[in-house]
Amino acid sequence: MKATKSSAVSTERQKRARAALAAALFSAFALYIAWHAAHESQTRPVDELPLSSARGDDTSSPAVGANKPDLVKRGEYLTRVGDCAACHTADPGRPFAGGLAINTPFGKIYTPNITPDPDTGIGQWSDTDFVRAMHEGIGKSGERLYPAFPYVEFTRVTEQDVLAIRAYLNTVAPVHYRPPANALRFPFNQRWLMLFWNLFNFNEGRFVPDPKQSAEYNRGAYLVKGLAHCEECHTPRNFMQGLKTTGRFSGATQAGWDAYNITPDRTSGIGNWSDEVLISYLSTGVAPGHANAAGPMADVVLNSTQYLTREDLRSVVAYLRAQQPVSGGVARSRDTWGKPAANDITALRGTAITSVNGLQLFVANCASCHNWTGEGVGASAPGAYPSLIHNSVAGAASANNLAMVILHGVARKTKDADVLMPAFGDELSNDQVAAISNYVTKQFGNPQATLTPDQVAALRAQPQ
């Protein structure tokens, strides 16, 4: 009896302790919100800081209220830097009208219409509405935006540049189109919950140049950390799908594609790429002897980085060079693997093929462009068929990107060349894609990077 009474008393004490703890946490949270609201206007960095050397422009660039054509032209350039068209254009015939489906672990988000249509776009948004969305992640009606829209990075962009983007968007053709409603699971469809997400993953405020660094570094930092939002793809995410504070630029996976390590580590990252090679990759999608852009990165080159001025490209490179190298445990660079095939093709002569054979499939589907030796055609000329030897995709620790290229092909149009590799997803089975991938990695790349048909099936199922 005494034991039962003692147990009941103990349980009651535990309940009271938990209630007290919950009350304390709620009180602390409420105090934080109150403090944040009271100090927000005092602690927010001032937009009017002298950022001409950090915005990626020169001191003659137009500010708000300057000549309208110059402001629109500046806004068009900045819209390119931000790659706004990539997310806000589902149909090339309706640029900026939104409707692109973005798949997240919590459901599907459809991008909004940002044309000046007054009913379905942002035609009735004030400049203040637009700035608040970019800087604070809050829509016209006070709704909290989801971080699929990268306001986490856009908050660093100066008000002058945000208004230049708005000026340009005001000039694009209005499109009367209402994108589908988001399809997010409960409770993730409750926008007010973004308040808590922001507490852990969002620091609102404009970019402030580092006085200890050069103007070139600061300009690169402004671009990479702001409009270009490079971390959105190249930085790993935490369990809340926010960007991790450690391992910045060390690589991540997006829709089945591996966004590689772009830290200056000489083995895992881009430390052994010269400045000119990096600039070539950003402006053309080709890094001779290293890599060729495909998948989402090809879209970035197509829509954004090929339009950056050489000064801005050099600034981006300077900033990336100064980042903390992350090794990731990789022992050999992706672009150092492989050798030309020697006698493989002659071994097929007179041989009866009774099962899925990677070499046979490679010869039948790939050799006409990449050569049966794997050395490609056209060397480093614009539009050349790339070598599979010393190729980052073939030499990566994971063969995911290789399989994705086979499944979905490559479409990358730049000022220098129109690169097109056909997609084989409708022609080849999962077993066949796996066989080709494993032959390519064994002969021309990292032989430890292998794929099973089931893994190819999982990649094929990734929405693009």
Automatic annotation (TrEMBL):
It comes from the Bacteria. Keywords: Cell membrane, Electron transport, Heme, Iron, Membrane, Metal-binding, Repeat, Signal, Transmembrane, Transmembrane helix, Transport. Residues 44-68 are annotated as: Disordered. The chain crosses the membrane at residues 20-38. It comes from Paraburkholderia unamae. Gene3D superfamilies: Cytochrome c-like domain (1.10.760.10). Its main location: membrane. It is found in: Cell membrane. The keyword Ubl conjugation does not apply. Residues 70-173, 215-324, 353-444 form the Cytochrome c domain. This is Mono/diheme cytochrome c family protein.
